[in-house]
Amino acid sequence: MAPGPSQDTGARAGNLGPPRNADCATQGGGYVGQEGRRPGAARRVGRPRGTGTPSGAGQPRSSPTEGTRIQKYLAHAGVAARRRAETEFIAAGRVTVDGHPVTDPGTRVRAGQVVRVDGRVVRPEAPLVLLVNKPVGVVSAAVDRRGRRTAVDLVADAGVRLYPVGRLDTDSEGLLLLTNDGAMTYALLHPRHRVPRVYCALVRPRPEPAALVRLEAGVSLSDGPARAEDVHSLSRTPRGVVPGPGAPDAGWISMALREGRNREARRMCAAVGLEVLRLVRTRFGGLHLTGLAPGEARRLSDAEIAGLWRDAGMRPPGPSPATERRPARPRTGGRNDLAGQTLAPGRPSRGMPRGKLERAGRPDAEAGPPAAESPTRRASGPGVPRRPPNRAGPPRGPAGGGAPGPPAPRRGTRPRAR
Known about the structure:
Elements: H1 5-13, E1 25-27, E2 30-32, E3 68-69, H2 70-76, H3 82-90, E4 95-97, E5 100-101, E6 108-109, E7 115-117, E8 120-122, E9 129-134, E10 163-164, E11 173-179, H4 182-189, E12 197-204, H5 209-217, E13 219-221, E14 224-226, E15 229-234, E16 251-257, H6 264-271, E17 275-284, E18 287-288, E19 297-299, H7 302-311, H8 354-361
Parallel strand pairs: 11-17
Antiparallel strand pairs: 1-2, 3-6, 4-5, 4-7, 7-8, 9-11, 9-19, 10-11, 12-16, 12-17, 13-14, 15-16, 17-18
Helix pairs in contact: 2-3
């Protein structure tokens, strides 16, 4: 006779032999095959396959989220870029942390640890921000593979590793920031922060008011719509811009953009029928291009750096200034626990019954006589007789006297359910 469903299930459950495939894992005395895990059983996670010493053994260990990654630390110290630091310094065993060789790129450097490269102590560089008036023909990069002159070459005597904040086309000129602060670079370039950049363009033909209105209303580009702000025409060469050869049928316009797309200003002008003959960035956030000849640079002051952080709507990284705080009130066992608290008489407290407030203000309420009755509020607590409810007549009881019965409910109210 063929076994029934229950017999078949029992036969399968009774098969406790070894698993038939390598995917089975022991689970609390049973096993799990390709059919799935038992209901309510948790998957057991084992160690990865393979033997030998785990990666990074003998190296200084730190929390996964504490400190700075070793390649980022070396980049901030001016040793090399992160990728180059991983391949040429960390993997080659040229880096030590507190005297221990480091070959794992995931190692983090904590405060107080000493990092050496080839036996020389390295430390992160102090943040530095420079404002450069980039001339035409200079590449907005730190290194150019084709050997062209870069913006970093203009400040070769800075003594620290710098890189540009954003880009200006090779054919464009004007204000460009160079820094070694990655947090500031992110804050200024992220489109969400909408830091304004003002461009002055010499365009041909002379711009008509309709073209300026279209730029403010928005035009469609290959990478999405784009719009400018504060678009207006200029009657002469902008302030801070070196005059150059002009054209009789050309004119200057000024426009503010809040994104850093590739050649955005030129493409927007082309969308409204304007040819850009010269493009100069005259402002970045609150910084203006004044007093600098093409190719010159100057260091920003602390006030100007703080203004850039405000333009991005962010605070500079680091500990916030100390502020005086009122000491926290000591917590008690419960909301109505009045032990150890002194409350001012008559001062209300949220969520506290008034009777308990009065007893808290009078700790000797139980020992002394009851307080005088207020014309508007009667004191309550132990030892204070309760006032009988105000009813229209005497309580009704059974016929012929005896104990009074339950009070009659007030007119217009519903008796409370017991």
